[in-house]
Amino acid sequence: QYATTGCSLTLHHTEKPEHEDICQYRPYSCPCPGASCKWQGSLEAVMSHLMHAHKSITTLQGEDIVFLATDINLPGAVDWVMMQSCFGHHFMLVLEKQEKYEGHQQFFAIVLLIGTRKQAENFAYRLELNGNRRRLTWEATPRSIHDGVGAAIRNSDCLIFDTAVAHLFADNGNLGINVTISTC
Length: 184
Hints:
Layout: H1 16-22, E1 28-29, E2 40-41, H2 43-53, E3 58-61, E4 64-69, E5 78-86, E6 89-101, E7 104-113, H3 117-120, E8 123-131, E9 134-140, E10 143-144, H4 148-154, E11 159-162, H5 163-169, E12 175-183
Parallel strand pairs: 3-5, 7-10
Antiparallel strand pairs: 1-2, 4-12, 5-6, 6-7, 7-11, 8-9, 8-12
């Protein structure tokens, strides 16, 4: 299916659907969490799309930054998104709050590379919450935007904490997450 965009594999028809789900030549979807944006395009067009269609996303330069999520007490499901630019690449930082069941909310924090799965393997990221003589740290390999936030949350491959933990680290309803990107 993606031969016109560069895929040169020839597969048996039974193997085709499985490959198409993971093919690096399939179009990239908009990496912003939530289902409102239906944009699809090439990897090279993702940053241009984000800068034009999602102008509210802030980009910080450097491998060590603070991702500030404001008003974490907002009711319901909420997403905070930010970009981090370093090592010649762009990374999308996402904090997503979901209501798991009545009155119980969970936060999921993850870093995605605006790039391929193979490129993502060259990096590591660390998320750290600090405050009140406490520290919570998560270290992992970023996921490609091809995989998306949903896959990371489904597989618990991200920093997960509940409202009580969030309040241990929050300051006036704002949560600062130290984000460090490194090369492997």
